[in-house]
Amino acid sequence: MSIQTLPQTTRPQTTCPQTTRPDAGRPDAEPYADAGPYPGAGPYPDTPPREAAAFGGAASAGFWRAPFAAVTFREIGHVLVSLPVAIAGFVFAVTGFALGAGLLVTVFGLPVLAAVLAGARGLGAAERGRARRGLGLAVEGPAPLDPRRDRGWWAGTRARLTDTSGWKALLFQAVMFPWRVFSFVLTVTVFSTGWALALFPTYSWVFHRYVGWPGYRVYDFTSGGERHQYYITSPAQIAAVALIGAVVVLLTPKLVRGLTNVDRSAVRSLLGRGAGG
């Protein structure tokens, strides 16, 4: 009896290509809070997975839930923190540039400007980190600068002075200062006004009980011997105020998103790899 051996067939193995971050292996690559493929998925393709999911909540929350979504308060927090950060960055940029330019008549001018540009690069890295945490935006930083130290002090200084990314980072600190002042004032005003009006029915009774007014006083003045006054007293008036406040509250996330989109565009264009790195 003979035994016949059938040829063994092997099933081809399929491997999925591994997705790696474009800045993997770079010495100045910024660490992300979550490991995994880069870029992330969802409506924020430039964002790491965990942060993409968090900021994707703004779209999934919808119009009615957006005022209470965590991503809305995160963006509002980013706007609030941006004011002191912008003040510090603006003072650094203007003072450093003015000092370096004023010292150009001496041997210290160029080294001061080179140091200012190096500091601007560092501030730019901090801004990219803030944008990643507060705005869900992950932007790849410019390529690291190689000053060729083996060629001496002047080569390093010249590399700093011709660093396009450093100049754009310095420009970022200057141009974003007035915008962030405007964003801070508008966000605080709209947010506080909206919630104050929306919650008006809960404290409208305070004015006639403790202040002595028949209701909330909108205005009270005398002109030409005639007194003009207006108080919010009736339930219909109180409901109308609350309705106006609710509309403002619902529109606040849209306003904040529009304001922070300017920050996103500035970070991409002035602090990213495409900014000249």
Give the overall shape.
elongated
Query: What is the typical, i.e. mean, pLDDT?
Result: 81
Q: Rg, please?
A: 28 Å
Tell me the strand order in the biggest sheet.
Answer: 1-2
Q: Give the terminus-to-terminus CA distance.
A: 76 Å
Poorly predicted sequence stretches spanning 5 or more consecutive residues:
1-6, 12-46
Structural class: mainly alpha
Strand content: 5-15%
Order of helices and strands: HHHHHHHEEH
- Largest sheet properties: 2 strands, antiparallel
Helix proportion range:
55-70%
Could you tell me the number of beta strands? Answer: 2
Contiguous helical run count? 8
What is the structure about, briefly put?
By secondary structure, this protein is mainly alpha-helical.
Q: Would you kindly provide a written description of the structure presented here, covering whatever features stand out?
A:
Residues 1-6 and 12-46 have low confidence and may be disordered. Strand 1 and strand 2 form a beta hairpin. Helix content is 61%, strand content 5%. With 277 residues, the protein is mostly helical. It has a two-stranded antiparallel ribbon with strand order 1-2. It is built from 8 helices and 2 strands. The protein is elongated, with a radius of gyration of 28 Å. The protein has helices at 49-65, 70-102, 109-135, 153-161, 164-198, 200-203, 205-211, 235-271, and strands at residues 216-223, 226-232. It starts with 48 loop residues before the first helix and ends in a 6-residue tail after the last helix.
